[in-house]
Amino acid sequence: MNTLRQRMWEDMRIRNLSLTTQKKYLRQVASFANYFNKSPRLLGIEDIRVFLLYLAQERKLSASSINV
């Protein structure tokens, strides 16, 4: 497991998130990184905004899905 993923996993465990929630969050970060074909470490605030617009406009996801 890479350092960034391990850190995220540990931070979620500190917050006492359920295993199911942790897995969902990790999947979403992977989806975000795959959209740009880059490591999340190389992506920034504007990239998050672009990805959220993609989820809302092109994927037509609900607000509650996007908030995850």
What would your notes on this structure say?
- The chain has 68 residues and is mainly α.
- Helices cover 72% and strands 0% of the residues.
- It contains 4 helices and no strands.
- It has helices at 3-14, 19-36, 45-58, 63-67.
- The longest helix is centred in the middle third of the chain and has 18 residues, at 19-36.
- The chain is globular.
- The two termini are 22 Å apart.
How many extended strands?
Answer: 0
User: Mind telling me which CATH architecture this is?
Assistant: Orthogonal Bundle
How far is the N terminus from the C terminus? Answer: 22 Å
CATH class: Mainly Alpha
For the report, how would you describe the main beta sheet?
none
Tell me the radius of gyration.
13 Å
Number of helices: 4
Shape by Cα distribution: globular
**What is the CATH fold-level name?**
DNA polymerase, domain 1
What is the gist of this entry?
With 68 residues, the chain is mainly α. The protein has helices at 3-14, 19-36, 45-58, 63-67.
Give a quick set of tags describing it.
68 residues; mainly alpha; 72% helix; DNA polymerase, domain 1; globular
Topology record:
Layout: H1 3-14, H2 19-36, H3 45-58, H4 63-67
